[in-house]
Amino acid sequence: MTTTTTAAQIPTSFGHELRACRRCRLVKTYDQFRDTGCENCPFFKMHEDSDIVADCTTGTFNGIIALMDPSRSWAAKWLRFGKFVPGCYTLDVSETLSDEMQSICHDNDVRYIPPKQA
Fold first, then answer.
1. May I ask which residue range the UniProt record assigns to the signal sequence (predicted)?
2. Rounded mean pLDDT of 20-26?
3. What whole-number distance in Å separates Cα of residue 81 and Cα of residue 89?
């Protein structure tokens, strides 16, 4: 039996327009988040409102890892990406979600782990 996993869009550019989802750390361009939202966080409905893209993503992050099969990758498990869709992820996001976006996570029974503060 074969299972089909939908993959996230791969960033179309690797310049200054890259953004990372503050919840799941998926990396795409601003335009990609605006057009299709976040594949791991559809409850944010980023594709419906560009202000939500700004609230839920950040351009400040460190490192990128590409995951083809997160459920089988030791790196994905170590980074806690094992249940996310295949795609490009950042290793570290320093900005937290707003209280409003954290409430949306809570309302959807989705765990949000804020970044560790140095």
1. none
2. 96
3. 9
